[in-house]
Amino acid sequence: MRSISLALLCSLAAALTASAQSSAPLTLTKTIALKSVVGRFDPLQARRLIEDGLGRLPAGRRARIPSLAPLSQALLEMKEEAISREPRVSLAWRFPHVPHDEATALELGAQLLSFLTDGAWGMRLHADLEEYAFESVFRVDLTVPYDEPIRAVQGDVDAFLRQLTQREMSFELLLAANLALDRKAMFDLDTLEGRAGRLSRLERLFGSKVSVSQDLSTHWMFDPPTLRDTARVYLGNPRVVVHARPVRPRPARVERE
């Protein structure tokens, strides 16, 4: 399947008509797509297939970084949830031109937030960071199992965020977060899809200037005060808040104090 996939990929250029090839310089840019070839293969044969196939496509131009104005004020929206019976609140921040070390600190902070689930009330908390060349997006999702007022759900997620932005996490929790990121990377590197994704991400961000091992060592450089201060700066910016309110919420079994 790997050789077939590579052959199919390399046949894309052959499938282009003369008119399509003539218009390709106007529609193709350097950053539209990245292809990482991983697996067991002869490098010389793979390079020959790629050059014979994709090498026919014109190089195009490098994509221009879009100009996106940052949010000047927070946005709040409420949506009806027709399927799930559990209320959820999603928060998102956009950060233009985040230095990679600070983006890595935010990624580590997102992992720390994901540890802070309130098991007593069945809450589920998830956070992550999507890093791109021109901007990054930090997102937090909190799901509660039973019907609660919007103010209560919003207060819960803000309380979790304050633990990241106003308190220093313990070294034990920081160690667990670092190990979790390493474990995630190891699972990625154990599959072809995961390896390709890691390599494509590094190419997109650094242009082959950073290896996988160098990238994975970065998140071990941060201490609790640095994480707190970085999160405080970035997560203090205006954010988008979306409350998903179930049409048929599950009623609470007990009253919360």
Characterise this structure.
The chain is of the alpha+beta class. It folds into 2 domains: about 1-55, no CATH class; about 75-245, Cytochrome Bc1 Complex, Chain A, domain 1, CATH 3.30.830. It contains 10 helices and 5 strands, in the order H-H-H-H-E-E-H-E-E-H-H-H-H-H-E. The chain has a 5-stranded mixed β-sheet with strand order 1-5-2-4-3, with helices on one face. Helix 1 runs parallel beside helix 4, helix 5 packs across helix 7 and helix 7 (about 170-190) crosses helix 8 (about 190-205). The protein is globular, with a radius of gyration of 22 Å. About 15% of the residues are buried. The model is unreliable at about 15-20 (pLDDT under 50).
Structural topology:
Elements: H1 2-10, H2 12-15, H3 18-27, H4 43-53, E1 75-81, E2 88-96, H5 100-114, E3 124-131, E4 135-143, H6 150-165, H7 171-189, H8 192-206, H9 212-217, H10 224-235, E5 240-246
Parallel strand pairs: 1-5
Antiparallel strand pairs: 2-4, 2-5, 3-4
**Top-tier CATH class of the largest domain:** Alpha Beta
- Along the chain, the helix and strand elements come as HHHHEEHEEHHHHHE
> Radius of gyration from the CA trace?
22 Å
* Order of strands in the sheet with most strands: 1-5-2-4-3
Separate helix tally = 10
